[in-house]
Amino acid sequence: PIRAVAKVLDLAPPDSTIRIYCYALSDPFALDLFTHHGGDKTVKIIMKPCDRSVGRIKEFLKRFERVNSYDVFYSRVQLRIADTTQRRCTRYSSMHDKRLMTNKNCLVGSYNMTPVARCANWEAMALTETTQQEIDGFDALWESLRGREIENVYPSFYPDTFRVPKRRRE
Prior knowledge:
Layout: H1 2-11, E1 17-22, H2 28-37, E2 42-47, H3 51-63, H4 69-76, E3 77-81, E4 99-101, E5 105-109, H5 115-119, E6 125-129, H6 132-144, H7 150-153
Parallel strand pairs: 1-2, 2-3
Antiparallel strand pairs: 1-4, 4-5, 5-6
């Protein structure tokens, strides 16, 4: 699955937007791909609230701290946390969507961005054309999550020594 993710990211033109719904995000390969492609694209991720994923992202950034990983991640990847506290059909609610969308392609399936999903699980993914409805739906949800950036929902996400650089894109 990670090769399919890499291919779709490679096919996206510079200055385009990558929109990602992410149930879990702890795979260092996925984190590296998103950070890399954030250099010439806008990368927006909506992630389920998950202490485990947040911890793994922090470990990834800590491992590469000597090469300014916090600055690079902050300036290249925009990550907002889904609000699953609002009751819908039940008292239990989860953001379970797993999609990566460019303006042209949409990867959708069972693939969580975790090492276990990459190496051990039997995962399914389908490549479709992205619809305007999917883009509009993501963008509307993205706007509704303003204020739920990862550093606001998880105040200790960045170390105390981190100084916020200017974001590259909004």
